[in-house]
Write a structure and sequence with these properties.
Elements: E1 2-5, E2 8-11, H1 18-24, E3 34-37, E4 40-42, E5 57-61
Parallel strand pairs: 1-5
Antiparallel strand pairs: 1-2, 3-4, 3-5
C-alpha cells in the first residue's frame, strides 16, 4: 500500500499500525507526538489498534507551550 507521511509518499506493508509507523519513522519524543490521519486526530491510546489504509495521509504534530 502507499501512504503519505509528512508529505512524502511511501510504500508500506499492509496491516501497518500507527504505533509501528511511529517506531519506523524514528519519531522524536513519541510520548508527546500527536498523529493525524487524513486531518483527523488519532487518540494516543489507539495507536496500537489503528491500522493504516492505502492512500492515508499521516502527519506527526507536537504542541509546544510557551509565551511571555
Amino acid at each position: 500500500m502507499f501512504i503519505t507521511v509528512a508529505g512524502v509518499k511511501k510504500e508500506e506493508a499492509d496491516g501497518l499500525t500507527v504505533a509501528q509507523l511511529v517506531v519506523d519513522e524514528n519519531v522524536e519524543m513519541p510520548q508527546y507526538v500527536t498523529v493525524t490521519i487524513n486531518d483527523e486526530f488519532v487518540a494516543s491510546g489507539t495507536f496500537e489498534s489503528t491500522v493504516l489504509k492505502d492512500g492515508d495521509n499521516v502527519e506527526f504534530l507536537y504542541f509546544m507551550g510557551g509565551g511571555q
